[in-house]
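Handout for the seminar on molecular recognition.
Each group receives one record of this type.
Step one: identify the two inputs.
Step two: read the structure output and locate the region that could contact phosphoenolpyruvate.
Step three: write two sentences on what you found, then compare them with the reference statements printed after the record.
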Amino acid sequence: MKISDSKPIDEQRLVGIPVSPGIAIGPAFVIDQHGVPVPEYAVPAGQVDKELKRFNAAVAKTQKQLSQLRQKAEALPAGAADEISLLLEAYKGMLSSARLVGGVESLIQNERINAEAAIHRQITAIAASFAAMDDVYLAARVADVRGVGERLIRNLLQQQYNPFADAPENSILIAEEITPADTALMNPERVAGFAAVLGGAEGHAAIMARALGLPAALGVTAMISGIANGDTVIIDGGQGLIIVRPEPATLQHYRQEAAKQARETRRLKSLRDVPAVTSDGVPVTLQANLELPREAESALEAGASGIGLLRTEFMFMNRATLPDEDEQFDVLRQLVQAMDGRPLTVRTLDVGGEKLATALGDAVGESVNPALGLRAIRLGLREPKLLETQLAAILRAAALGPVRILVPMVSSVAQMRQLREHVMQVERRLHRRGLKTATAIPPIGAMIEIPGAALAADAFAKVCDFFAIGSNDLTQYTLAIDRGDERVADLYDPFHPAVLRLIQFTIAAAWRANISVSLCGEMAGDPRAVPLLLGLGLREFSMAPSRLPLVKQEIRATSMPQAVAFAESIMARSDEADIKLLLDRGVEPMKR
Ligand code: PEP
Ligand code: MG
């Protein structure tokens, strides 16, 4: 990264990807990342064994450092510690992978080059093959591969590395790239926020920023030059905005904004213990979606009455091997215990499509249309061992507290029947092994997120104990809009009349069959959707913990007659623009 010598006073605004909301103001601490210098030289035939030993010693040293780092991470806030541990495990996995270690060894042997150069070549090749796969998760792994490679080379060169050692109090870290392992070294007490040229919203650095509560923006390409150490920097994490050397008026505006956000957070926190009821007393269930176990704490802090959706993919990501039953049980056991009697809805593995787990590699395979291919429950039924290992862990956890099983991407009633058979079989097997399960089979529900399942909701209601509407995928599949493709993002509209009709139909089918129905897509956390969904008959919402207080506030300000009238007026519209207008206006003009 080029660092300018002069300090012009002109204000500069740079835009990146908003990955972690909040406002941070402080002096820039520019991390010097000229990369590790990689010497390359030939190794005489007689020295090859010695060079191999040197490489193996560096691998062992790196393994040891990662274990130390893991211990260090344990001092971080609970969630952040979980996240970094998963990552460090992934690093350790890479360090024992044949592709990396074997590849470097054969380069040393066959090309007779030094270990540093061999690592550099091998890492570059692995990173290039990951990047070429055009997959967000693998793209995020490129940073991990590079991180491991740099660490190995540093160890061979005997270089010590702590990029933040000299960061002043309250500083804003500015870097070309913040590796996930770097984030483990960050002390949230000293660091106010960070911004990097590289990185996207899916990566670990972003997840860690959120876990540590640090405002952050990534992918701030324009930051490549022009920020000097000590420059005042503002990060508006919610907007992905970086303001360098702000004018006094800008600084004042953001200081006020930061104070306002702090007040709003305190005010919303005070809603934690007030009941989620409409203004005319109809109770509503508000639950949380979890992507990582660490979020359980925030879910409880936000006043969630349970977990409406536990995305279990985290257990399978960033690792070379599959988690066994005990490992999965252990994670679920901790969550059941943390929820302390509140229900935990565990969704079976939803990988494939845009959510690819490296550990599954060959099982998922390539697909011309990954979103329509072998994924989620389709994969589970095709790979019964994978499914049954997870079901066994879930059933064992269900002995410790209320648990529900949620099945993703269901498109046919037969899949639910087969799933239930697997559950029964696994339960019998657990009993034979002398293991405890719940007294009754946990409720088994379907994600209604494929238009065909929504249209056949009456049939599904006969084989399901509950429904959870996945509005994210329901929108994707109804409108044929890839939810992860920014080029068609303007067409992605969960309030499109077609999607709303499918949601309405699903809720009505659940009511007819007298089973519970929740909505756990992003729409559930949008306060504008509250009166509409209430009016359509929804009484259970599940959302990111941070959205919960806002939604509760909206519920408490809405009466059921208003909600019904609002839903009717929206459902009478077929023009998306009209619907948007009504949503933006809300029920306010109809007198609360
Ligand atoms: C959904 O599709 O709406 C949903 C909740 O699941 P995910 O976002 O994990 O696909
Ligand atoms: Mg989904």
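Reference statements: The first strand starts at residue 12 and ends at 15. The chain has four domains: 12-31+163-258, 45-157, 290-442, 465-592.
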